[in-house]
Amino acid sequence: MSKSDFVHLHNHTMYSLLDGAIKIPDILKAAANMGMTSLAITDHGNLFGAIDFYTQAKKHRIKPIVGMEAYIVPHDLHEKKPVSGVPDSGYHLVLLVKNIQGYKNLVKLSSIAYLEGFYYKPRIDKKVLKEYSEGLIALSACLNGEIPRAVTSGGEEKAESVIKSYLDIFDTEDFFLEIQNHDIAEEATVRAALKKFSDQFGLGLVATNDCHYLNREHNAAHDALLCLQTGKVLSDTDRMQYPTDQFF
Hints:
This protein is α/β, with parallel strands linked by helices.
């Protein structure tokens, strides 16, 4: 596979506030230099960078794929309290636009997440996702996705149940199992399970890198950005940190 055949579908720009260290002009220039013809933007919970990304991508003759990494809760989005076993911000789910209706629906979902579901982060639930799923493609996301979490904490039977809940929303051609490798041990377990589920449910596998900074050497700068987000300093041992330097 050449570089031009690969499409990065999981990218966090500076609009993933205090968690993304990639400037839109920089990532588009890098993609163009590598001969890539398409690129996605999937910032955390928002579409703040969508228009800027779309406009600049066109100048680079790169097909812009507008998306968002949503926070999704398995209960009613209006519940504003901690739920055992569920992150306060919800599980991650990558949503990609495939047509104009999908873009309109993603805008709607982002708005609902902020105006109705906000609790620490902008959140949606599966009921509202199903209502506005037309024109969208979903990827199962990183280790914080509901399916990978089920694999690592609840076992394959639980994960199968979660997959079925998403196939009640998306057709099989619009729902993909996302595999990643950032040198994290849990990812190997998840990859093996997702390969099995791919065969079992007839779902496509998508390889992504969870890009939060452009180049490997930017890891330290991104780490400092996380400190700003969490009110910590680099010397603090008990703080949010990414486990490896592979998120580029």
